[in-house]
Specification:
Residues 309-331 are annotated as: Disordered. It holds the Pfam family Glyco_hydro_16. Residues 54-307 form the GH16 domain. By secondary structure, this protein is mainly beta. The protein has 2 domains: 3-30 and 341-383, no CATH class; 44-305, Jelly Rolls, CATH 2.60.120.200. Helix content is 11%, strand content 36%. The chain is globular and about 60 Å long.
Length: 384
């Protein structure tokens, strides 16, 4: 082996040692960097795990009276783990004055806490003990639906969920960011929407609004994406939405399926998940007695929050600059090194919910890794 080749080999080993990510916990991380075509920095990380909640598992009977108010289905939904982030909704789609229905709905729809519950996983090859279920069901005279939303607003987020959708046609299952506007044109929203009447390999991705007050479509606002690798939305797959200042990008199982710059939301927004139908043109009409379900094993997200007292660093100026390139993981640090000394990631980890260190700024840390790499390389070379 020539010395030039050996020298090159040592450099490769050193580079691998420096760039190697190591498992860690949130306490060590100052910020989080996502991968993909529009990677960005975020200041916070939260993981919500519904896979091992057997003591809360029960499937409640559907409520058959649209006016009946229901409580939550288990104590899990009273816990701080849930309440500190999420709130289950019970609103209905009556329009102003409480007479007509909103939009082009033809069916009265009522959200109920009774439709959000923990369910035992009875799959033959079950990878979890339980999951969270959101149910929508067509009852005589009304549609029973499910929705929960974040109690805080976020200013940019990368949110992922391991989920599947099952059941009858005529429902819409969604995860989205949302900021209400006085007029339709003022709404800011980035959507993942699964329509159960659609082919199982198709999902709608949108920066809302996707239509005008006159009912005209806005094609630039939406994409009808195809799931990769022969997957369907009735399979357990990881759905991901990256909302950044530049654009919204959507992934399935780590593969980019849509990207939209047009009408990218700019202001802080909630995160909402729902399962619904109202007989209108978007969801379609569900047959009497039919039901559809969105089942979620976990939700994982990195984000910047606007909640009082929490870190409000934005992506636009206070985080370290990111190198140019589609899969950049190198950093150019400016005057704010103290803001983000330890850069972590939730991508490509061994287990869902884990984080790993991508880089640390301390010089001693870098020297230590270089030293280890060179020693290892020399040992290997001596053996050759």
């Amino acid at each position: 082996m020539s010395w030039s080749f050996r020298s090159y080999f040592i450099q490769l080993i050193a580079l691998a040692a420096v760039s190697r990510a190591s498992p860690t916990n949130n306490d060590e991380c100052n910020c989080y960097l996502t991968n993909g075509s529009n990677s960005a920095y975020y200041s916070q990380h939260k993981f919500y795990d519904f896979r091992n909640l057997s003591k809360y598992a029960q499937v409640p009977s559907p409520i058959r009276n649209s006016s009946r108010k229901a409580g939550v289905t288990s104590d899990y939904f009273k816990s701080d783990t849930w309440d500190n982030t999420w709130s289950i909704q019970d609103w209905n789609n009556r329009g102003k004055g409480g007479v007509s229905l909103s939009g082009d709905a033809t069916v009265f729809m009522a959200n109920s806490p009774n439709n959000v519950y923990i369910q035992k996983n009875d799959d033959d090859d079950a990878a979890s003990d339980t999951f969270l279920t959101m149910r929508t069901m067509r009852m005589p005279g009304f549609q029973s639906a499910a929705e929960f939303e974040s109690v805080s607003t976020y200013h940019y987020v990368s949110v992922r969920m391991l989920a599947r959708v099952t059941g009858g046609a005529g429902a819409c299952m969604a995860l989205f960011t949302y900021l209400e506007g006085e007029d339709l044109a003022d709404v800011q929203e980035a959507d993942i929407e699964i329509l159960t009447r659609d082919p199982k390999n198709r999902i709608q991705y949108t920066n809302q609004p996707s239509f005008t007050d006159d009912g005209d479509d806005i094609p630039k606002a939406t994409r009808n994406g195809t799931l990769p690798k022969g997957l369907g939305w009735d399979d357990w797959v990881v759905h991901r939405l990256d909302w950044t200042p530049e654009r919204s990008v959507w992934y399935v199982q780590g593969k980019e399926v849509a990207s939209i710059e047009f009408q990218t939301p700019k202001d802080p927004a909630q995160i909402i998940l729902n399962a619904w139908s109202d007989g209108g043109s978007w969801s379609g009409n569900m047959s009497l007695g039919d039901a559809a379900y969105m089942q979620i094993q976990w939700i994982d997200m990195v984000y910047n929050t606007t909640k009082d007292g929490e870190d409000k660093r934005s992506l636009d100026g206070e985080m370290p600059e990111r190198s140019v390139g589609r899969e950049s993981s190198l950093f150019r640090r400016g005057d704010n090194d103290d803001e983000c000394k330890v850069v972590c990631s939730i991508d490509d980890v061994d287990k869902a919910g884990e984080t790993k260190v991508l880089s640390q700024s301390a010089a001693s840390h870098m020297v230590m890794h270089w030293t280890k790499a060179i020693v290892i390389g020399c040992v290997i070379l001596m053996a050759i």
